[in-house]
Design brief:
The chain has 105 residues and is mostly helical. The protein contains four helices and no strands. The longest helix is centred in the middle third of the chain and has 26 residues. The chain starts with a helix and ends with a helix.
Length: 105
């Protein structure tokens, strides 16, 4: 019986609310979920545009080096979508630089 009273007192302390502790706000949780979904969508779009759109940036780089180094002609269709791939890679690079600079606050 004595153990049950101690357990009840201990559980009561866990259940008690502290005035200094911030309250739970469902709006903050919903806002966090919306921002997370948007960030994941932007990340997916950037990676898809850089790596998949019209063959991706690696296909264009390999065709460029094949033309530049071996003088083997390549079809112009290989370079379709180069602007989108390049801009997506640049945006990814800018985001990485921003995250790197702000890594310690």
């Amino acid at each position: 019986m004595r153990i049950l009273r101690k357990l009840e007192g201990w559980l009561g302390e866990l259940d008690g609310e502290d005035e200094n502790e911030p309250g739970y706000d469902p709006g903050h949780l919903a806002g966090t979920a919306v921002v997370l979904c948007i960030a994941l969508g932007v990340l997916y779009w950037l990676l898809w545009t850089a790596l998949v759109y019209r063959g991706g940036i690696f296909t264009k780089l390999s065709a460029f080096f094949r033309v530049a180094l071996t003088k083997v002609p390549s079809t112009p269709e290989v370079f379709e979508g180069l602007l989108g791939n390049t801009l997506a890679c640049l945006l990814i690079g800018f985001c990485l630089v921003g995250l790197w600079r702000n890594r310690n606050g």
